Automatic annotation (TrEMBL), chain A:
Heterodimer of an alpha and a beta subunit. Belongs to the ETF alpha-subunit/FixB family. FAD binds at residues 202, 227-228, 241-245, 258-265, 279. InterPro entries: DHS-like_NAD/FAD-binding_dom, ETF_a/b_N, ETF_a/FixB, ETF_alpha_N, ETF_asu_C, ETF_asu_C_CS, Rossmann-like_a/b/a_fold. This is Electron transfer flavoprotein subunit alpha. PROSITE patterns: ETF_ALPHA. Pfam families: ETF, ETF_alpha. One of its GO terms (biological process) is fatty acid beta-oxidation using acyl-CoA dehydrogenase. Its cofactor is FAD. The electron transfer flavoprotein serves as a specific electron acceptor for other dehydrogenases. It transfers the electrons to the main respiratory chain via ETF-ubiquinone oxidoreductase (ETF dehydrogenase). Binds 1 FAD per dimer. GO terms for molecular function: electron transfer activity; flavin adenine dinucleotide binding. Keywords: Electron transport, FAD, Flavoprotein, Transport.
UniProtKB/TrEMBL annotation, chain B:
SUPFAM superfamilies: Adenine nucleotide alpha hydrolases-like. CDD domains: ETF_beta. This is Electron transfer flavoprotein subunit beta. InterPro entries: ET-Flavoprotein_bsu_CS, ETF_a/b_N, ETF_b, ETF_beta_N, Rossmann-like_a/b/a_fold. GO terms for biological process: carboxylic acid catabolic process. Belongs to the ETF beta-subunit/FixA family. It comes from Endozoicomonas elysicola. Coiled coil: none annotated. The keyword tRNA processing does not apply. Residues 23-211 form the Electron transfer flavoprotein alpha/beta-subunit N-terminal domain.
């Protein structure tokens, strides 16, 4: 049987996380079909059909799918999914919103946030904020899975030539509607796709002081993240939160500034290749995971760092 | 309007868990347990809706061994009116929890069901969405703002790119994110009062649900430990190391 991967997109661009999800599907093995469900999403379909390893792209285009409301998309995915051995999606907020609904409609358990594929029915995933890794086996007829991107190297976005098939898409549960969205505008790289991330915590003191980090980030071509404390205090918006209950990242370089290193924060960044911590408290737990620790007042160290890059 | 709130008993979020030496599970003996932080936010939101005159009754539900009555009592002390415990010692996956909650929804017919977005032990993040599917309800996950108005609920959701607002027909399921509210502390008089509030105990059999799972945990292991690195003395040394040793900038 084949594997259905649900693509992440915004009707215009295929999200990079889909390439990591296809990589997980490749590790399971089998024919891989990529579902693009949206409205006016033809350009996504084009990008999807070029993804390496995908044999078929299913294209569902309907106004009811425009904002990817879980009530509507899950009807489509559960209907198509009956013919597959596995249904995979990333751990984006869209997929996390929709996939458990799909699993319940198919009457199977979902396996959330896998970081490795042991075999076609066995997977490992972090639990307890990454303080333990569980290996779980599923005997469900259809395995519904979300994939943590940092666990899988992406497949190539080019080189494939999948056939495209239009599928019925009149799936409207009629119980919810989209009102509005406020998306953060930024010229910096997206957190989950960035090579370098500079993050600030409560130690930044206020939102204006994040300017110091933006300047460093712009010199490094980095994304900017934050701890929960910095988001809760209103210094920066919620989409910048890194951690157990925020975004999970694993860049080449993660610079934590004025962040103490609570387990919930570490859960979101401790798989980064190189970690730097700048904190004035030499006992801060962040130093236990940092490759390079600098005990200093950030208001002196960060401007100096910016000057020397 | 009636609100059902699901509260889960989990390890306290301040405790660092350890994996058992036989790799079967994490060690929970003598570990401090508490209400899942996201469920606490759900209870707080229900209480605020009642204080605003939107809600008339709050029912707190927990599923699990006898001890989870403690978390129901916490919810009652925070302002819930009565509790329901579904008692079972069997391990419960999110799908089983959702099926049991669906059976309670059928009996109680709430207008709004509030759950946490995620349990901090399993880190599943599934139950609310599953319940919504089984009950044919709309869902507003990762809520940072909830407004009930003329038969609908408007939910502002924390999504990857920022914030999204949806309008949901009632009855609806809402799952809470961190910024929805800041939970209050229970006062001593309210803790005392909570002891006298009604708490119904049921079994999965009473609800006609058999608890089973398609998942088996084969092993539980500690994560790869990260070695602490070195302290650098200056910004110059840091930049030098990042350029020449780590080669990341
Ligand atoms: C259910 C739940 C989910 C959570 N999810 C997340 C999550 O996803 N992500 C997350 O990050 N947290 C999360 N948390 C919160 C977490 O427990 C911590 O409270 C939070 O990470 C602390 O943020 P912080 O390090 O910025 O603040 P603090 O712990 O207050 O640390 C501030 C640090 O800044 C340093 N500092 C202050 N001034 C200076 C200065 N001038 N120069 C240098 N250093 C300075 C201090 O020494 C201190 O170490 C969660 C908590 C719960 C209960
Ligand atoms: N055993 C349980 N008892 C009561 N509520 C639960 C239980 N398990 C999960 N929930 C609810 O579902 C939410 C999400 O859980 P999960 O899907 O396990 O991450 C929790 O925050 C609770 O509101």
């Amino acid at each position: 049987m084949a594997i259905l991967v649900v693509a992440d997109h915004d009707n215009g661009t295929l999200a990079p996380a889909t390439l990591n999800t296809v990589a997980a599907a490749t590790a399971i093995g089998g024919d891989i079909h990529l579902l693009v469900a949206g409205s006016g999403c033809g350009s996504v379909v084009e990008q999807a059909s070029a993804v390496s390893g995908v044999s078929k792209v299913l294209h569902a285009d309907n106004p009811a799918l425009e904002n990817r409301l879980a009530e509507n998309v899950s009807l489509l995915v559960a209907e198509l999914g009956k013919d597959y051995s596995h249904i995979l999606a990333s751990t984006s907020t869209d997929a996390r919103n929709t996939m458990p609904r799909v699993a319940a409609m198919l009457d199977v358990d979902q396996i959330s946030d896998i970081i490795s594929v042991v075999s076609e029915d066995t997977f490992s995933r972090p639990i307890y904020a990454g303080n333990a890794i569980a290996t779980v086996q599923s005997n469900a007829s259809i395995k519904v899975i979300t994939v943590r991107s940092t666990g899988f190297d992406p497949v190539a976005s080019e080189g494939g030539s999948a056939a495209v098939e239009a599928v019925a898409s009149n799936h409207d549960a009629g119980i919810s509607s989209f009102v509005s969205e406020e998306l953060a505008q930024s010229d910096r790289p997206e957190l989950t796709a960035a090579d370098i991330i500079v993050s600030g915590g409560r130690g930044m003191g206020n939102g204006e002081n994040f300017e110091l980090l933006y300047k460093v980030a712009d010199k490094l071509g980095a994304a900017v993240g934050a701890s929960r404390a910095a988001v809760d205090a209103g210094y920066v918006p919620n989409d910048m939160q890194v951690g157990q209950t925020g975004k999970i990242v694993a860049p080449n370089l993660y610079v934590a500034v004025g962040i103490s290193g609570a387990i919930q924060h570490l859960a979101g960044m401790k798989d980064s290749k190189v970690i730097v911590a700048i904190n004035k408290d030499e006992e801060a737990p962040i130093f236990q995971v940092a490759d390079y620790g600098l005990v200093a007042d950030l208001f002196e160290a960060v401007p100096e760092l910016e000057g020397k890059l | 309007m009636k609100i059902l709130v699901a509260v889960k008993r989990v390890i306290d979020y301040n405790v660092k868990v350890r994996v058992k030496t036989d790799n079967t599970d994490v060690d929970l003996t003598n570990v401090k347990m508490a209400i899942n932080p996201f469920c606490e936010i759900a209870v707080e939101e229900a209480v605020r809706l009642k204080e605003k005159g939107v809600a008339t009754e709050i029912v707190a539900v927990s599923l699990g061994p006898k001890e989870c009555q403690e978390q129901i009592r916490t919810a009652l002390a925070l302002g819930a009116d009565r509790g329901i415990q579904v008692q079972t010692d069997d391990p419960l996956g999110s799908l089983s929890v959702a099926k049991l909650l669906k059976a309670i929804v059928d009996e109680e017919k709430p207008d709004l069901v509030l759950l946490g977005k995620q349990s901090i032990d399993s880190d599943n993040g599934q139950t609310g969405q599953m319940l919504a599917a089984l009950a044919g309800m709309s869902q507003g996950t990762y809520a940072s703002e909830v407004n009930v108005d003329s038969g609908k609920v408007s939910v502002t959701r924390e999504v990857d790119g920022g914030l999204q607002t949806v309008s949901l027909n009632l009855p609806a399921v809402v799952t809470t994110d961190l910024r929805l509210n800041e939970p209050r502390y229970a006062s001593l008089p309210n803790i005392m009062k909570a002891k006298r509030k009604p708490l119904d105990v049921k079994s999965p059999e009473d609800l006609g649900i058999s608890v089973s799972s398609t998942l088996t945990t084969i092993k539980v292991e500690p994560p790869a430990e990260r070695q602490a690195g070195i302290k650098v003395a200056s910004v110059d040394e840091l930049v030098e190391k990042l350029k020449n040793e780590a080669k990341v900038i």
